[in-house]
Specification:
The protein has 67 residues and is α+β, with helices and mostly antiparallel strands. It has one domain. The protein has one helix and two strands, in the order ββα.
Length: 67
């Protein structure tokens, strides 16, 4: 059983998946098509908190990147 990354609670959901990507070239697949290399799990309350934090980081990055 997987446990929450923040509180170690059981009964978790996947909040992030990472892949090894794919190589480029004529036979290269789309980004993220490589093998799955890791998952991060969280309980529902922490999954919602992580999603909010990720949204805030993305908005801040977008503000910084806009002219």
């Amino acid at each position: 059983m997987n446990r929450c990354v923040r509180c170690r609670m059981r009964g978790t959901v996947v909040v992030f998946e990472t892949s090894g990507g794919s190589y480029t070239g004529p036979d290269g697949g789309p980004p993220g098509s490589g093998p799955l290399t890791g998952r991060m799990y969280a309980c529902r309350p922490h999954a919602e908190e992580i999603a909010r934090e990720d949204d805030e980081r993305q908005r801040a990055a977008n503000r910084k990147a806009s002219p």
